[in-house]
Structures are given as structure tokens and as C-alpha cells.
Amino acid sequence: MSIEFNQDRNYDIIAIGRACIDLNAAEYNRPMEETMTFTKYVGGSPANIAIGSSKLGLKAGFIGKIPNDQHGNFIKQYMSEVGIDTSNMVVDQEGHKAGLTFTEIKSPEECSILMYREDVADLYLNPDEVNEDYIKQSKILLVSGTALAKSPSREAVIKAVSLARKNDVKVIFELDYRPYTWASKEETAIYYSLIAEQSDVVIGTRDEYDMMENLEEGEGNNEATVNYLFNHSPELLVIKHGVDGSYAYTKSGDVYRGLAYKTQVLKTFGAGDSYASAFLYAIVNGKDIETALKFGSASAAIVVSKHSSSEAMPTVEEIESLIAQQG
Amino acid sequence: MSIEFNQDRNYDIIAIGRACIDLNAAEYNRPMEETMTFTKYVGGSPANIAIGSSKLGLKAGFIGKIPNDQHGNFIKQYMSEVGIDTSNMVVDQEGHKAGLTFTEIKSPEECSILMYREDVADLYLNPDEVNEDYIKQSKILLVSGTALAKSPSREAVIKAVSLARKNDVKVIFELDYRPYTWASKEETAIYYSLIAEQSDVVIGTRDEYDMMENLEEGEGNNEATVNYLFNHSPELLVIKHGVDGSYAYTKSGDVYRGLAYKTQVLKTFGAGDSYASAFLYAIVNGKDIETALKFGSASAAIVVSKHSSSEAMPTVEEIESLIAQQG
Amino acid sequence: MSIEFNQDRNYDIIAIGRACIDLNAAEYNRPMEETMTFTKYVGGSPANIAIGSSKLGLKAGFIGKIPNDQHGNFIKQYMSEVGIDTSNMVVDQEGHKAGLTFTEIKSPEECSILMYREDVADLYLNPDEVNEDYIKQSKILLVSGTALAKSPSREAVIKAVSLARKNDVKVIFELDYRPYTWASKEETAIYYSLIAEQSDVVIGTRDEYDMMENLEEGEGNNEATVNYLFNHSPELLVIKHGVDGSYAYTKSGDVYRGLAYKTQVLKTFGAGDSYASAFLYAIVNGKDIETALKFGSASAAIVVSKHSSSEAMPTVEEIESLIAQQG
Amino acid sequence: MSIEFNQDRNYDIIAIGRACIDLNAAEYNRPMEETMTFTKYVGGSPANIAIGSSKLGLKAGFIGKIPNDQHGNFIKQYMSEVGIDTSNMVVDQEGHKAGLTFTEIKSPEECSILMYREDVADLYLNPDEVNEDYIKQSKILLVSGTALAKSPSREAVIKAVSLARKNDVKVIFELDYRPYTWASKEETAIYYSLIAEQSDVVIGTRDEYDMMENLEEGEGNNEATVNYLFNHSPELLVIKHGVDGSYAYTKSGDVYRGLAYKTQVLKTFGAGDSYASAFLYAIVNGKDIETALKFGSASAAIVVSKHSSSEAMPTVEEIESLIAQQG
């Protein structure tokens, strides 16, 4: 089975949501208190996916709000340089700042982050800054769950999804759950289900699906999730189980399993975004689901062995070479 | 055509949203500045509809949040006395107050209101205060648009609608647009369409449908509205055109027109709520759409000739007698 | 001892702070739940004091912010009609409403109130709406403690006090403590001491002085209070002990006691404001402290026997007649 | 003339206000967009002054609120290591973050900063976290103007100043004006004058005094400032005029001028804080005002030639050596 995309479009993928700044520990294998230098990268799940997709050759665009400062300039410039269309990235005029993520890399198993997400520019994207004329030029609208955390970004996303459905643009929902800025788990579940029910493809970890279903972590199971969501719009669900690999379910009843690739893990950040961009690259290029799962896993394996999430996004050759090595 | 309700239910209708206080000018035909005395009534569109329905003999329940003060006590007591089940009316524990509406009755044509809606208790209804076990006991969930204006009440309503759909409860959406507390027209349009698309019946004035479609007042037309909403869940739409009467459209393509009854107008408040309660009474009791339109109009004609919105709700006999007189 | 006022001034007193709406139970001796009618009056401590002073013949002015609605119009009109200069009452342009106080009169001993103070217009008075040219025309600046509860009204009052001191205007601080809108007792104590230390006269109940000193109710004593405040600007302190009467202390070491007058109590509201206006009337007119205490008590005795706080403010004749009767 | 300090105290100086994180461009002489690496330092005016004072040999303590995260840990650890007593640094329990300052060093003349000050921990210092027993152990309470920008930190500072005055602790007010987080210039002026009037020593640039006096930049003059503040508590005023040097005025009428030292400027950050710490060191050690002005200028000259504000704070030997060289 493969997803049918509308071929007559200028963009393969338009992502909507946050584009932020990562400040990654330059000295690692130590607590952040002892890290004295930080390296700056563009970050944020949908920005990373757009960057990853663009590096793989997809034609990507981005809808989001960036600050009117040096960090905002850097974000736009960087994304533009990797080939992303930034014409719909709006510059905030009210003094909101870029989200920041300081990473702490104590060891490959112990990574933590320190987030600055208070009143950040990306959550101030307004519905009237979402343009139908832009969205309808794309095969895919990629929605990041975090963009639903607060108004008015929440309404901007609800509007974007509505416009995508009206214009036959596939809605791909990356659950991308981050506890910051959500008022409660119940609120998260309400908006996650609302958008998941209206999406064509949903991608997330098992824990994120539990969140969407308002279950305690570990309470959910794939069968129930599949039964629930295939009663609505989705035709493909990807559920990731960490080191146990990932599963893809199709509405027609097929199940596929993808396995994780062996790699030298430096840190765990960026795994999900690199997975999503390679998976999307594969399905947009008409590859079958099994191959797409391999692309996702190979891409993730490459990124977790490197220092950044965005800068480290692999090329098609690197992915194919890893698949060729490990099968 | 008539709507099919699930007959095996304890309640005919459960309304969700605000129950507030009306303070109606005791001395009228003058500006409010000169009104020195105000009479207290229960108010708020969904509360009025529940009260009106109950007085007509429907079995009604209510989901909402009321303040922990004398006004909250009065609201609950009054609603209970007219026969409404108040077991799911939650008492606020955070000091929020009841919404207030002072009415000014300068003349039958010049009525205005002065609203207190800042941080009112009803907008603090939480999603976890909405119970599936309660909603599934009803034939109808009546949703008032104003309850969508702010979080967490907004999410409580989205959850209630989702539970109603899951449990075969008809969702009836009274648009009930009030500019207060909405952040913008665009935000209103986003949530109004979201809920309208998931409802079985939508009732509103032409202006309110324009708001839902994010159009300027007067820009919309019934044909476009009907085309849009019948692509989604609704099976019946009622669009009210003031003195020109109201139209009912069915998904099967029928159109009915209801005319306004002559009456001695004292003030215009309460017309919409009395209309909705009598219309719902009629369709729950299996009357045809034409008769339901007459019930709505007759009920409205009676209420606008009296001083209050809630207290003045008519009986079936009064409605039938007016219909018998004027046809 | 008597206070020396600058005689060369247009106004005897300019009050700063809130002017609101009282909605007094028209049917009383019952819980508010059973009160169906409310009578409207102007209310709010500094407004009442200005009204009371004006009815006694003082030339009064008012600095405050009122809503741009029917309640705001009524407040300004009423105050103007009793002779208060309203040229420095600013009309709010941001949709803030008048504060409301619903009174419940169960019995003379059991009175309670239900306040609407959320985002009210009076707390939005801006520092730049306080004019030096106005303040310097007065003998007295009367400051109400409640106006310190929130920014920007807090800063407007701090500025007004600073301008009064600069221009030899006596600052009279009515503590007027209301728990609503204050963030904490500690915050209250900080601003109450700040202003009390800069005032010439402080008037309050023993409980209010406890609040100013950040003590638990009942912990404070007059001696400590007097020692503390006479180290700063005040020259006269009035401390009220309810039915036990009131004490006046002067910086020169004199102590006076005033006794309460017998009266037929209807409700307790308005006692403090009527006390303050008659006390101020007396000291402005050069009466000695003992007589001023009698004026205050007599005025309070008259107001608590009547239905309103503002409308019921007595004339000089009524006060003198009561003093003549009871001594 | 020299300031008399209470000699019987455990601490020379206790500073109150913010302790934050500076992220200084590791690659400089370029716009921040092109800076890819940032070096972490402790920052924030009162923290820098405490660090500078401590490195000069004063016994310093600090009152402030730090986040419960890696940045908070680093701040406390660093300050403790340079010898500051951190027993009154409170760890925030509500998720507030450390303020951040990214510095951009385009050239010695073109330095700008990018601040993260939204809901930062330091502005959440509560009045009840300010302890009289601690403050009364110090000769000096150093107050930073920025700590007045928002409640509850504002009230914590007002309380600290009141406790200092009560306990014969000299209040030294570093105006330290930062536009961020202040609601308006008028609000700034109100709180700046309030605290300046209650201080013993005030230190600031001419522009900062203009802000305190609610004047446009450049409108103020030292004579008017001196006339105004010497009517209140201050006995010493330092007014800095950038490259034109600084002036010290004493209540007794003396005026001293200090000149700037020649140096190789790398960036302008940190000049004010290093000035204040060396000036305070000098006056605490009984040096005369002229010498104190030299200490301030020499310390500033050293810090602007180095990369950080805190880490670069000089020793007494370095300062004396520069004075010896340039006189």
C-alpha cells in the first residue's frame, strides 16, 4: 500500500509550527552546570523535519512565527539556505522571543534538556497569518502537536488543517508531545484527538498516543488506538516503540514492523524528527511502507550519533548506505 | 421529515454552558442611567433554554459551573425548582462570579445590555467536570456558542460534543454569539465551524451564521451555508431572519419557512432562547418541522411581550393558543 | 490641637480612588438568595466620603476612573449633582466595568456583601491621569487604601501622595481595607505602611492598623502603632474600635476618646465613610478634635439607620441635632 | 568627606536583585547571527557587584531567587565559590527560569544584547523571603533598580529598604535601568524616586537619573537632581557621564570629578557593575571620595577590555596598578 498524493503541487511538504534555537553543550559527558560553552543550531520538531526533508530533496515550505531579533534572523537565514521556502514565516512585532533548548549530554543514556518556552514567538502565530493560497500548493501539511499547546497558534493550526482538508492536501500529524505550556493532560488529549481524527497520517511514540487517548503512560495498546483512529480520517498510523522498533498500520488492515539500526549513540535528541523526515521522503517518492520504515530508522540512527538535530540531518545516500550495510 | 432521537434515554435534553443572573430594569422606557431598581432573574442562553424546555414538559439536565455565593445558590435553586436536574452543575471553588446582564429598556426598539463577563464562573467549567455517564443518558446535548469563547469551558464543550457523538446523542448547536470574551472574529469562526460541522442541528440568526463563516455581516447567504454544512454532520439547519421569519433546511433538500407572530413587544431579549426551547420541544415530541417553526415563533412572541427571559417562558397551552389564534 | 490647613485653596478636599455602584437589597431581613430587587446607589469609600463631605458643605473634587457605560454615566452625574467637581474623573476607554457591591441585609447584625471587583475601571487609573495642577488646589488629598491594591491605580496614588506633599496638601489616609484584589497580606502591609508613613492623618479601624503592621487580627495595640507612625510624617491618628468608640492621638501626645451614639441599626455598611466625611468636615472647619470625633460618630449613627451609604449622608443640622440630643 | 558605616556587622555588603546567565559571543567582531558559540557566565548587575566586591575582599551576601535547574545550580555554585554568602538565595519552586543575556559584540562601539526576561525567577522574589535578621548584619544593602520592575520582587525590595533603614544599614541604590519588563517610563520614575528618596547613596548614569525624574533623555541636569534628592535621605550621589567621567556630590556641598582611564575596549558591558563594586570597596575601606571615584573608573577600564562581566572583575592590585600608571 502507498499513500496517494496530489501530484500537481509546487511543494512536497509544508510544515507548520515552531522554529527555535538549540544550544547544544559543546563540552559533553558532564552535567550542564559544568558545560561552559554552547553551540547554536536551528531546532524545533517541525523546523527539523522541514530541514531534514529539504536535505533529502523534497521541496519544503514553512509556516511559523519568528522573533524580530538576531535569533529570528538566524533561523530564517539558515532554513532558507537549506532550500526551504520561508515566504510564510512571519516576523513577530510584539517582542516575543525564540524558544530555546539547552541540551545536557551527561552520557548517551542520560540526556536532558532545559527549555525556554515562556511567551515564545512561535505560539503567537495568528490564524490570519495562515494562507489558503499557500497551503493548497502542497502535497502534505505537516502538523506538530506542540503548536496546539496555546492560543493563537492552536487556532492557526486548526485553521490550517481545515484548509488542507478542503484542498486535498494530506495532513500528517507528528504528535511531538512536550509537556511545557500545556495546561493539563486532559486539554492535550482533547486537541490531540481533535486533530488526529482529521489527519491522514499520524506519527508518534506509544507514549504520545497514550497522551492523545488520555491514558496513563503504558496503559494504551496499539489495537485500541488503531480501532479508534481508523473510525475517523486516518489511513496510516506509525507507532514507535523506541528500541523495539516501530509499527505502521494501514486502514486496509496491513501491519508492518520496522527495526532500529545499530549505531554509536551520542545523544537521543533529534531521533524523532530525523525519522519523520526520512519516512515522509520515502512515501512521497512512492516507496512502500516497509521501505519507508527503514528510511525512518536509518535516518534516526545517523542523527543520534551526531551533535545536532538539524545540522546532522543525513542525505539519501547516507541513509541508503546504512540500509545497505544493515539490511 | 423529522429527527430520530434515541428513545431509550432518561433526559430529553441536557444543556451545557452558562447559567447567569439577569438584572432587568424595573422602571423602563428610560435610559439605564435613570433606572434605580433592578429585578433579578436567572439568565444565560442555555439556562433559559433548559428552563423553557422544562416548563414545556421536557426532562432537562444542565452541565455548568456556578459561583460559590448567593447568586450561585439562587441559580441552582431556581433551576431545580422548575424541574431541571442540577446534579452536574459544579460549584466553583476559586472565587469566580456569576455573569451579570443589566438590561436597559428605552423602548421596544431600543434595548441594550450591560454585561459583566470578566472571569465568570461559567467559563471555568473543566473538561474533567463533563461526565460521559451523564451525557449518554440524554436524547439531546444542547451546546451554546458562548461556552466556546474561552478555555477551559471551550475544551469542556469540545469534549462534551465528542462524548455525545460517541454515544448517539444528538448535538444541537445554538450559535448564541456574544462578542464579549471572544479574542477575535477569526477565532470565533474557527470554533463555530468546528462545532457546527460536528452537530446534528444548528440554530442561529443569519448574522450568527455569517460570524461562523468569517464573513462580514450581510455578506452570507443561506444557500452557501447549507452547501457548506450539509457536507458535514448536520441534518437540519434553522436560520432566523428576524421579522422576516425563519427558515429550516433539511439535508434531504426540504425548505420550510416560519413566520413571526404579532405581539405587543416590551423588549427583544429572550426571543432566541424561547424560540429554541419551543422548537426543540416540538421536534422531540415528533412534530413536523413546520409545526416546530410555529412553536418557536409563538414562544418568542410571548416572551418578548413580558419582562424577563426565563420567568416568562410559556406553557404548551399558551403556545398552542397563540398558534390557534394567528394560525 | 487642630490641624493647620493651607487656606488659600479652591478645594477643601480632593478624594482619589474608586467610585462604584452599590446594589442594595430592596427587600431585606432575608438571605440574598430571596432578595429579588436591588436599588442602585453610588458607592465606594472615597466616593462616599466625597459625597458626604459635599453634602456637609465642603468643596470637594474627585480623581478616579469610571467606565464608559451607563453605570459610569450615572456615577459621574450623581456626584456632579451633589456638588463634587468631576473634571478629573477619567472615562475608561478599554472596556473595564464599574465595581459592584450587592448587599445582603439578613439582620442588623448579619450583613454581608458580594463584590464584583474583577478588572474594574477604578483600578486602571493611570499615573499620567493624576494632575499636579489639580491636586495643588486642595487643602486635603484623601487617599483610600483600596486604590493601592493593584497597578496602575497603585502608582497613580503613590504619585498623587508625592505631589500632595510637594505642594503642602495634607494627605489623609483612610485605610479602607478590602481583601479583594490584594495579592497577599504582606503586600498590603508594605503599601499601607509606605503611604501611612507619608500621610498627615491616618484613619482606620484597629483591624486595619493590624493589617498595615502585618500582624494577625487582634495582635496589635494602639501604643505600638502610635510609636511607629509618629516616627514618620503623621500628626494625627484615628483608631476606631467599633462599639467601644474611637481614639484620636496627636503627635504632641494628646489622646481623645469618642463614643458611639445610640441608633436603630438597619445595616452596618457606610459607617466608616460617613464617619470620615463628618470628621473631616469638622477639622477643616477648625473644630477641635473632641468635637470632630463626635461629628464622626453622629454621622455614622445616622447612616447605619438608613438604606444606602451615599444617599443617606446627613446634613450638618442632622449631625448637630443628634449630638445635641445625646451629648 | 566619607560615609560612616556601622562597623559592628558580619557583612560589608548584601546585594538584592537578579543573578542571571550571560551568554557571551565566543566569536566576536561580527553580528550575532554569525556567532555560533556562546560562553556562559554569571550575570546581572547586583550579582556582578557582589562578585566584584567579593573579589576585592569585601564580605558579601546576596538576596535573590534562582531557578530550580542547571542554570540556577551554576549561579549559586559560582557565587559561593567566589566567597559570597548564598544562604539567602531562594530556589524557585514554580518553574521560573534564569534570565539570559546573549551579547553581540560587533565592534567595541557596537555592542548589543538580546535579553530573555519573560517571567524570570529573580522577579518572583517574595517579600516574605527577605529576612530582617540577615539584612541587619550588613553595613550596606545594595539595591538594583531592575528588581523594582515587577511584583513581587518590587515589594521584596521595598521591604528590604524599609528593614535596612530601621536597622541602620546604608542603602545604596544602583539605578541600573533596563527597559525590559517595566510597564512604562512613568511607572519607572515613580518607583525610582520612591527608593532614591529613601537611599543613602545613589549611583547611576545621567540618563538613568533622567529616567528617575521622568524627563526625556538629555533634559535633566545635575544641579536639579542634587537639589531634589538632598531634600530627602541621600548624603552622596554619583552621576556618571560616560567618557566625560563621573561626578560625586555630597550633601555637605562638595563636588568631585572622576575621569575615565584609557583602555583597550573589547565591549562596553560590565562597566557599570565593575565601577560600583570598586567604588563601594573604596568607601567601605574609608578611602576618600576622590580615591573611590578613581577605583570605580579603573575597575571599569579593566572589565571593558575583557570578555565577561563577572569573571573579569579585577583585584585590588590590578586596580591600584592601573591608578599608579595613569594617575
UniProtKB/TrEMBL annotation, chains A, B, C, D:
- Spell out the family assignment given in the record's similarity comment: Belongs to the carbohydrate kinase PfkB family.
**Annotated pathway:** Polyol metabolism; myo-inositol degradation into acetyl-CoA; acetyl-CoA from myo-inositol: step 5/7
Catalytic reactions of this protein: 5-dehydro-2-deoxy-D-gluconate + ATP = 6-phospho-5-dehydro-2-deoxy-D-gluconate + ADP + H(+)
Q: What function does the entry list? A: Catalyzes the phosphorylation of 5-dehydro-2-deoxy-D-gluconate (2-deoxy-5-keto-D-gluconate or DKG) to 6-phospho-5-dehydro-2-deoxy-D-gluconate (DKGP).
Alphabetized NCBIfam families for the sequence: myo_inos_iolC_N
What is the protein name given in its UniProt record? 5-dehydro-2-deoxygluconokinase
Transmembrane found in the keyword field: no
Give, as one word, the top-level EC class.
transferase
TM ranges are none
Record keywords, A-Z: ATP-binding, Kinase, Nucleotide-binding, Transferase
Q: Where is the Carbohydrate kinase PfkB domain?
A: 12-315
Q: What PROSITE patterns does this protein's entry cite?
A: PFKB_KINASES_2
EC number assigned by the record: 2.7.1.92
Q: Which domain of life is it from?
A: Bacteria
UniProt key word Transferase: yes
